[in-house]
Amino acid sequence: MSKRGNSLNKLIPALLPKRKTREQHIYNPIQSKFTEPKTIKVQVYDYDKEELNHYEFDSVVDCKKFNNNGRITWINIDGLRKGDVEIICNEYQVHQLLIEDILSVGQRPKMDEMDNIMFCLMNMLYYNADDKCVEHEQVSIVLGNDFVLSFQEDADRDVFNPVREKLKVKGSKLRLSDAGYLCYSLIDIIVDNYYSVLEDLGEHIETLEEDIIARGDAQSLNLINNLRKEIIVLKRNMNPVRDIVNSFMRSDSDLLDERVIKYFKDVYDHIVQANDLVENYRDMMMSLQDLYLNKVNLRLNEVMKVMAIVTCLMAPATVIGGIFGMNFETIPYLHNKYGFYAAVGSMLLIPVWMIYTFKKRGWFKS
User: Fold this and answer.
1) What per-residue string of b and e applies to 40-62 under the rule 16 or more CB within 10 Å gives b?
2) Between residues 134 and 364, which one has the greater pLDDT?
3) Count H helices, E strands: the chain?
4) What does the domain layout of the chain look like in residue ranges?
5) Which of 149, 198, 286, 363 has the most C-beta neighbours closer than 10 Å?
6) How far apart (Å, rounded) are the C-alpha atoms in residues 193 and 171?
7) pLDDT in tens, 35-59
8) What is residue 366's predicted lDDT score, i.e. its pLDDT?
């Protein structure tokens, strides 16, 4: 390849728009490229109705002892490292295809069942108020017999704290139920957090609407375009979740009993409402764009109106000046000592009469 081609290849990525995301750990099984974090954080909640034990480790090797111990175990791993994911998944007999899905960041949300294992891949969404953008983090949830594995990209944040707090309460529904209910709780809290993101985005849309009504400048158009992109991000991440929850509801797996499936129906209703809300926001953005264009057209009409009035008022002076400025030897009142004053007076009186007539007919009203 020529030097010019190499220069273009280096230049094109720099020109592409950069989107702020939290995607830091990317495994591509086709290209065999994987960027691993230096450290991971492992949290284990091992419990039954009587007792809860919470552990934190720096290695997944310490989690092997919780397999088949007769209690419910939730292992949450923050940070994706290929070796660690393979160790824990092989210990809990997770299929190799599911391991590749866990390590592949940027996938479409989906749900699979393999070898008495239920697997779902979703995105946790966050609203960055500083940058006014929606950030997403992929989370993989593996449901097996008496255990749940969850894998996250980012160790700094998640939305699972309400679930952790409920686990600490003796006699709570989580402590009295099986691993299927724990899986439902994790999916439910992810979906519920979508409403927080939608609420923040809705406040931003309302603020933008007020800004367009007050100013409606070029910056408002940029904000409209940016918000439309964020709504597309929401739609891309939330739409497939409806199919995921529906797959859980239709599953015949022994890992989910009838009582848990009823709870998934409630999650299904929530995600349907969230998707409807995203559609409403999309319609609102179209309305805001129309409002902006109408505002620009109205401002342009006001400018054209002023210019038309000025042109009309200057027309009599132009006509009179043009007539008396012709180079003819004989022009009426050319040598009259009051001719100049009569011409100037006409130039002033006629526009005043025109203004009075325009105002009387209501042409100055907006």
Assistant:
1) bebbbbbbeeeebeeeeeeebee
2) 134
3) 9, 9
4) 23-294, 303-360
5) 149
6) 25
7) 677 788 999 999 998 899 999 998 8
8) 60
Which amino acid, 332? P
Tokens of 150: 């969850």
Do 142 and 115 touch, CB atoms closer than 8 A? no
Q: Are 320 and 349 in contact (CB under 8 A)?
A: no
pLDDT band at 21 (very low <50, low <70, confident <90, very high): very low
Same fold, 23-294 and 303-360: no
Question: Cβ distance 128 to 20 under 8 Å?
Answer: yes
Tokens of 207: 């603020």
Reported CATH class of domain 303-360: mainly alpha
Tokens standing for 357? 């007539």
Dihedral sign for Cα atoms in the order 226, 232, 235, 240: negative
**CA neighbours closer than 13 Å in the CB half-sphere of residue 172:** 17
- Which residues does 30 contact at the CB level (< 8 Å), separation at least 6? none
Query: Domain 23-294 adopts which CATH fold?
Result: Beta Polymerase; domain 2 (3.30.460)
pLDDT tens string 226-246: 888 889 989 999 999 999 999
The answer to whether the pTM exceeds 0.85 is no
What pLDDT does residue 45 have? Answer: 95
The residues pairing with 327 across neighbouring beta strands, listed in sequence order, are: none
Measured CA to CA, the distance from residue 175 to residue 170 in angstroms comes to: 7
For residue 303, how far is the Cα from the chain centroid?
37
